[in-house]
Every structure is written in structure tokens, then in C-alpha cells.
Design brief:
A hairpin with a 2-residue loop joins strand 8 (104-105) and strand 9. It contains three helices and 25 strands. The chain has one domain (9-247). By secondary structure, it is mainly beta. The strands form eight sheets. An eight-stranded mixed β-sheet has the order 17-18-16-15-19-20-24-23, with no helix packed on it. The longest helix has 6 residues, at 23-28. The termini are close together.
């Protein structure tokens, strides 16, 4: 199946637009984006979750979120490669939303200095994941169950507006997924089609790490403190750093927990493992690893993806088959 047309940032941020061209793909994998209309978030007087990096060790030294490598246009359309994204089709060439900013420094970016969109809006979303024999049924409404979001559209008096004038609101929509409960590796890794690649355990869509032009979306796009924002379809989503706001028990003394499910059925876990945080260097080309994790109610040695602090953040390719 061919990759749907990617929407460049300036087109995606036009007001009054309908759902983007990647929606048929979402429907094809049973992520039913039947818009129910904008769900009014309720502003609450609490701060959104922090995005500050933890003090942690990696396999090659201390975690340094002040000098994270940019993932700009690091992709392949031929075969998966570690530290890149295997795309079904190359994104069109365009400019990122933010080209110059204090947190963008050559080939690196500083997560500690990056601006975030203001606001702390509580949505009280819904999410359920139930096992039925060999399948897992997931239902959600696309807005977070626990964490807050920023105020979108970005207000002109928000400092983030000077960099990113995202005019999109956040809307709820019906998600109905049927995934394999015990996924198996495909004959060969699958490419990512752009847009949704999974869902968090808090009901938020996970997109791949790129913006519409193939630049590092986590670094260039202005997002809230949970690294989330809406696209022109009003779909709130994360491009990475799931561990910022999805509950993770991970710490220097405890391994990370399940943060979400990829569309091939494999779990996505936080970065903590045996007292350190994993990076792309520890993972395979699909951004995964086989190790003991709690899965389907018991601890098993199983393949899973990892949400890391470095690009490509969640998935580099699909390890298993995506039900089309």
C-alpha cells in the first residue's frame, strides 16, 4: 500500500481544513477517526508535566539532553537502519516550522531550553485495552486520560506563537483498534506510512518522529509540556518522549513500564532498564529490543519498542505486520 501524501507544515496549519490525506491509512489500520466534534477541555489551575531530562546514565555516558542529535531527514526508503526511520515514501522537501531558535544548535538541539506551549487543559479522556483470545481490543477518544495539554490554538500572547502559529484546536474522535495480543515478527520490517504509528496507554495517538517535511518534529515543532500538539485534523498526538506524561514506573532502581502499543501489536516501553536509560545505540533498526518486561499480565522475555530521549524516539520501522 502506498504512503499517503504528506501535508507540508504551512498547508497543515491552515485554518478551516479538514482531516489530512493520511486519514485513509488510519482507517485502513482500524484507527477509526470518526470525529465526534471538539470536546471542550476544562482549564485547571495546575502546571503541565515537566519535560526536563532526568539525571541518568546511558551505555555511553551521562544522558545529555542539552546536545541531542537532530534527526532532520534521517530516513531511508530502501531498508531500515539504526537511528533512522524507514519510510514507505520520501517526504516532500519543505522547510521545518522553526528553522532558527536558541535551542537549535547546528546538528543538535537542547531539550532543556526549548519553549513549550502554555496551558494546562484537562480532558478526562477514555482508554481501554482488553484481551480477547489472540487479540487486543483498544478503544479511546483521542484525548489524554490523565495528563493535561497546552492551550491550542496557540495564543498570540504565548511566546511560542513567535515561532509556531499552530491555529489548530484539539478534538476528540473514536479510536477502535484490534491488534494481535502476541505479535510475531514479519518476514521483513515494514516501512512507516507517516502519521499514526500507535497509541499511548493514556489514549493519545503516537506519530512518527518527523514533521511533514521530514524534519525532527520533537525538536522543531512547538509543543506543550507533554510534547503534544494537534494537526489540522484536530488530532492531538505525540512525536516522541512518551515518558514525559504517560505514567512510567521507570527509575534508577526500577525498569520502565508499558507506555503504549504500536499498530503492529508490539508494546512501547519507557527508557529505563537496569538502572540506566536506553538510547538508539542499544536498540535495533526498528528501535526495539528483546528483554524481560511485563506483558499480558506476566513478566516475559519479549520484543518491544522503546521510547527514548534521542531520535527516532519511538519507532524506526514496524517489526510486525500491520493489519491493513
Amino acid at each position: 500500500m502506498s504512503r499517503p501524501k504528506l501535508v507540508p507544515e504551512r498547508a497543515r496549519y491552515r485554518t478551516g481544513m479538514h482531516r489530512p490525506h493520511h486519514v485513509p491509512f488510519v482507517l485502513a489500520v482500524a484507527l477509526a477517526l470518526a470525529t465526534t466534534g471538539a470536546l471542550e477541555g476544562r482549564a485547571v489551575p495546575v502546571a503541565a508535566s515537566t519535560t526536563v531530562c532526568p539525571t541518568a546514565m546511558t551505555s555511553h555516558g551521562p544522558l545529555d539532553c542539552a546536545h541531542l542529535p537532530l534527526g532532520d531527514r534521517r530516513f531511508s526508503t530502501v531498508a531500515p537502519q539504526r537511528g533512522e526511520i524507514f519510510l514507505c515514501r520520501a517526504p516532500r522537501r519543505d522547510h521545518p516550522v522553526v528553522r532558527e531558535a536558541s535551542w537549535l544548535r547546528g546538528n543538535t538541539w537542547n531539550a532543556n531550553d526549548k519553549l513549550t506551549v502554555r496551558g494546562a487543559v484537562a480532558w478526562h479522556g477514555t482508554f481501554s485495552a482488553r484481551l480477547h483470545g489472540d487479540t487486543r481490543t483498544i478503544r479511546a477518544d483521542g484525548v489524554p486520560t490523565t495528563a493535561t495539554t497546552g492551550d491550542f490554538p496557540i495564543s498570540p500572547d504565548d511566546p511560542a506563537f513567535a515561532y509556531d502559529r499552530n491555529p489548530n484546536a484539539i478534538a476528540s474522535y473514536a479510536i477502535d483498534l484490534t491488534l494481535p495480543a502476541n505479535p510475531q515478527p514479519a518476514a521483513s520490517p515494514g516501512c512507516l506510512h507517516g502519521g499514526p504509528i500507535g497509541i499511548t496507554t493514556t489514549g493519545v495517538a503516537i506519530y512518527d518522529a518527523f514533521d511533514a517535511a521530514g524534519y525532527d518534529g520533537v525538536a522543531h515543532e512547538l509543543q506543550d509540556a507533554c510534547h503534544g500538539h494537534p494537526d489540522r485534523s484536530q488530532t492531538y498526538h505525540y512525536h516522541g518522549w512518551l515518558q514525559a506524561c504517560v505514567p512510567d514506573r521507570g527509575s534508577p532502581t526500577r525498569d520502565s513500564s508499558l507506555l503504549g502499543y504500536a499498530l503492529d501489536g508490539y508494546g512501547i516501553y519507557g527508557p529505563w532498564y537496569h538502572g540506566r536509560v536506553l538510547t538508539s545505540a542499544d536498540l535495533d533498526a526498528c528501535h526495539g529490543i528483546t528483554s524481560p518486561v511485563r506483558w499480558n499480565g506476566r513478566v516475559v522475555n519479549v520484543y518491544h519498542y522503546v521510547s527514548t530521549y534521542d531520535f527516532p524516539y519511538t519507532l524506526g520501522c514496524f517489526k510486525g505486520e500491520v493489519n491493513e
